[in-house]
Amino acid sequence: GQRFTYENKHFLNLLATIAEFVRFNSSPMGMLYNIFPRLMEILPGEQHKVFANIELIREFVKMKIKEHEDTLDPGSPRDFIDCFLTRMHQEKDNPSTEFHYENLQATVMNLFVAGTETTSST
């Protein structure tokens, strides 16, 4: 993985975005979204700002995955992303594999958000 300093403005922005996402997810509106996602997408409210923030986090994760793809050495994995990318390449001809880009992106996003929120609140 990669460490960020607390002076890194991009990282501080991501922390604020994640904190807002976690706060929303714990709110009544967030709970309604979890039950009725399609309805919440058409109703006005703060959830639209949260959706935009999720896109910022998703773009950050995509950028990190791309950096790993560009520097990947399958014989010397550095972290989870490298291992997943290597396995993805090994299973590229398997149509029923779970090792595809969408799963990598979702898993890394979940790990990043959960890990960042956990460590920033303790």
Automatic annotation (TrEMBL):
It comes from the Eukaryota. Keywords: Iron, Metal-binding. Gene3D superfamilies: Cytochrome P450. GO terms for cellular component: cytoplasm. The keyword Transmembrane helix does not apply. One of its GO terms (molecular function) is oxidoreductase activity, acting on paired donors, with incorporation or reduction of molecular oxygen, reduced flavin or flavoprotein as one donor, and incorporation of one atom of oxygen. Pfam families: p450. One of its GO terms (biological process) is organic acid metabolic process. Coiled coil: none annotated. InterPro entries: Cyt_P450, Cyt_P450_sf, Cytochrome_P450_fam2. The keyword Metal-binding applies. Belongs to the cytochrome P450 family. This is Uncharacterized protein. It comes from Nothobranchius korthausae. The lineage of its organism: Eukaryota, Metazoa, Chordata, Craniata, Vertebrata.
